[in-house]
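Schema walk-through. Below, the input block comes first and the output block second. Nothing else is stored per chain. Lengths vary across the set, and this one has 214 residues.
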Amino acid sequence: MTVRHGEGINLATSRRDLEQRAQVLEHGPMAVMYAICDRVVDEYERVGAALEEDVDEVEESVFSPTRTNDSARIYTLKREIAEVRRAVMPLREPMRRFATGQMDGVDEETATYFRDVVDHLHRVVEVVDNLDGLLSTAFDAHLASISVQQNDDMRKISAGAALVVVPTLIAGIYGMNFDHMPELHWAYGYPFAMALMIGVSAALFALFKKSGWL
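--- output ---
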């Protein structure tokens, strides 16, 4: 008899496999317990493999040259990993007791089967811990990437503002219409002002382009 909360795994395959292994089935109820535990841990290994693929995709997205918004996906994956950890961690102590023969009905030969389950369980725990660490690193890298992108945006905005401010300043100076401004009565005053605005703007544009601000 097994107790399930929610949808459980199909144990029919475990039963068929166990029926084909007479040397294991000789151990009676503990053989059935081993088959169930082995199937459960194998399912967690498959879950861990699927999570590894998802984490790899997130890492590729975070470190791609294009702008991405991976915060929500990273958070979702961390929640999934936390759920797997909550499901896996409580199994370690019971499996250890089975593997060391501390449970009634478990002899030395039966314990060897449970030790195999414990090895698989340890691999699952290790994978989950590693994935959680990788996601934390990916999230930090994502935040750093956002900060760099914001700095790039601010540089571009500042460069664009400078390109607008300089011609505006020149036009404002010559728009004050003071009597003692020689350029106002100069035949080439207007072309000179236009050339000055265009020249300064072009020089600033070239400077910002060279420095990577544009």
